[in-house]
Amino acid sequence: MLNKVFHLQDAHTTVKRELIAALTTFVSLSYILFVNPNILNAAGIPKGAAFTVTAVATAVGCFLMGLIANYPIALAPTLGSGAFFAYNVCVGMKISWETTLAAVLVASILFILITIFKLREIVVDAIPQDMKYAISAGIGLFIAFIGLKNGQIIVNSDSTLVALGKFSNPAVWITLFGLILTVVLMAMNFPGSIFIGMIVTAIFGMIIGQIPLPHGIISGAPSMAPTFGQAVFHIKDINTAQLWMVVLTFLLVTFFDTAGTLIGMTEQAGMVDKNGKIPRIGRAFLADSTAMVEGAVFGTAPLGTSVESSAGIAMGGRTGLTAIFVGIFFLISMIFSPLLQVIPTTVTAPALIIVGVLMASNLKKIDWDKFEIAVPAFLTVVGMPLTSSISDGLALGLIAYPITMIASKRYKKVTPMMYILFVVFIIFFLVTNL
């Protein structure tokens, strides 16, 4: 039955492998259950309701991706969109969270229309293969950078922006322990090495007294009644130029974040064919846009493709069964929140660093000998970690691409869609960074 639905044999995977992959993705992504409610609470959304909404919306998003697209990719509220939702719109513009949810819902509906007309699919197909490799590698560096920051190996610096963390910090030792252990297990080709590394690291942190033992195991999930349906009730509030600009910003950021992440994840999973085409990409976009709608109705910031899915892909996840398992784990997690609260980011940091190493392998596939390719590819690769934004890094590279191709007299190789993207990304920067 499972093989018939998810084509496990065709993907050269098994139920056990998909389960281990899902566990790895879930543990890597579980922090969203506590970080997202804190962000949404800054906008005025009750933290308890936000916790339950985060779990339910993520679970439904994963089910949609697994069943519609058969991709091993989790959909969850994204921190970038969540921060824009809470701090820029609600706090900065003083727009109520109910109205902001309505703006997310309108953007989601527009997203579905764009998907139905296959515009997103056309955009992804138009991106040159070298740039797709650069996107995948850039996401890898971005993920590794997140891991280094979460593990406090890299810290803020007033003089140099970032610096090496202090070895007197116990969090650094927990991260280094997990990183060394996982590297050794990976080098030995030990099955489930990333997941095992996280579990052993958590135990190590508890033994040395740096990770608290859970005070309980089971607790009831708060009601999401305060947020459910508010987006629908307040959709009539979207009646000013300012609010339509908010809708446009949500649309642009989620469009390019998802496109970039999907390219990176499918490249990592080996799903891209020889012609650079991504199978079922239209279905993946439909699942993503539908999940964005259900998230808005439930009461959370926009859902998007989770970069933490790469940890599960690294463990062999290749079909939608991985996403289904992740969704089930998120539903179960609602009653086991005391256990999840003791897993700090230092435990998942080594997994993200290792995944960054694996995804960086796409750098070797880029034609660095051609300067007109090297420049936009390089801007994409370094732009993602340095701006902490997949969409910004993507924009830098795709703005540079037509310029270098025209300068090298290879303008005939640039498709009309790439010129359109050149203009769109300039507008994107003007809208999101002024």
UniProtKB/TrEMBL annotation:
Any GO MF annotation of the entry: purine nucleobase transmembrane transporter activity
PANTHER family: GUANINE_HYPOXANTHINE PERMEASE PBUG, XANTHINE/URACIL PERMEASE C887.17-RELATED
Keyword Cytoplasm annotated: no
Keywords: Cell membrane, Membrane, Transmembrane, Transmembrane helix, Transport
Family listed: Belongs to the nucleobase:cation symporter-2 (NCS2) (TC 2.A.40) family. Azg-like subfamily.
Membrane topology: Multi-pass membrane protein
Source taxonomy: Bacteria, Bacillati, Bacillota, Bacilli, Lactobacillales
Chief localization: membrane
Keyword Protease in annotation: no
Localization per record: Cell membrane
Protein name per Swiss-Prot or TrEMBL: NCS2 family permease
Cellular component GO terms held in the UniProt record: plasma membrane
Transmembrane spans: 20-36, 48-69, 101-119, 131-148, 168-187, 194-213, 243-264, 311-332, 339-361, 373-402, 414-431
Pfam families, A to Z: Xan_ur_permease
